[in-house]
Amino acid sequence: MAIEDEQATGAAQGGGQARPDLIRGVARGAAPAPLSILDLATVGEGYTPGEALAATTELARTAESLGYHRFWVAEHHGMPGVASSTPAVLLAHLGAHTRTLRLGSGGVMLPNHAPLAIAEQFGLLEALHPGRVDLGLGRAPGTDPATVRALRRGITEDPEDFPRQLSELTHFLDGDFPDGHPYARLTAVPRSQTRPPVWLLGSSGFSARLAGRLGLPFAFAHHFSAANTVPALDLYRSTFRPSAVLDEPYALIGVGAVAADSTAEARRLAMSGALAMLRLRRGTPGLVPTPEQAASHPYSQAEADFLDSWLGNVVLGSPGEVADGLEALRKRTGADELMVTSNIHGHEARIRSYALIAEAYGLG
């Protein structure tokens, strides 16, 4: 189905039920733009998944008290260092331990699931935590090919037919399949009077263009696709059509960021996440290594080049340096909102990094 398909467009726009006030961030205190968090429930060396999830819960409570706007978790599979395999389950838990923080998926990989199942999961989340839930959708598998086959066993739909899957999902969310549709009599239960805002996530031009044509908010993965950020946002804005959800574009970018007492300490901490990414790219994912393991790793020249390139896109340093770097990135990209992620070893170091960033950035 082409992205111009009017039925898909009408469905994804959602009849105005997404409440634009919940999509647009509200700047707090002296912050130049809303600041949010993407968390992967990072499992580091020496920690259990249970300890990682407890740390994520503590981080969500801390983020709420610090003035962060959203707290998203992402779907990943087959990665020992990531415990957020099922966003809906984790979001239900986080919602029970917070009061005002917006919670969402950054994202759910829609081709891995039946659209009805996602409509039910997020309808339930909206019923549990009304007005606080975002449904961010991606089309990548979030894992390796073998795990994809296991995940999608029994799903006969074409995973590349993302616009049609999105259309079906939003019809389920809104309960407005047209007469004569095979699913016209089906209802996604529970279904609240309102539904979570739908976001499209991406690291290339496909989702940018689709989000623009459908008038949906767009989140771009700058933290692992920095070279494509500006072209993708330009494409999103140039193709944007006003909708019942938004009358103008709203773009968020994910940013790797690490703050510490000094630039050297921030880089030392960031090395653990960089080595974890190197291992993932080599097809050998594992627990997030300690800074000591990252410092003593025998890097080849190619590996050292990869780390330098990766860390070059992480905003790291003292709190003031990180705040200045985030603001420079916001101005360069024109992003309406920044979503920082600190993929580093050690729960205390991670929480402290977010606290230092919040204070330096001016969250209230």
Automatic annotation (TrEMBL):
Q: Which residues form the signal peptide?
A: none
What InterPro entries does the database record attribute to this sequence? Answer: Bact_Lucif_Oxidored, CmoO-like, Luciferase-like_dom, Luciferase-like_sf
Top-level division of the source organism's lineage: Bacteria
Q: Where is the Luciferase-like domain?
A: 36-336
The chain's coiled-coil residues are none
Q: Which PANTHER family match?
A: LUCIFERASE-LIKE MONOOXYGENASE (PTHR30137:SF6)
Return the NCBIfam families for the record.
Answer: oxido_grp_1
Spell out the family assignment given in the record's similarity comment: To bacterial alkanal monooxygenase alpha and beta chains.
- Protein name in UniProt: LLM class flavin-dependent oxidoreductase
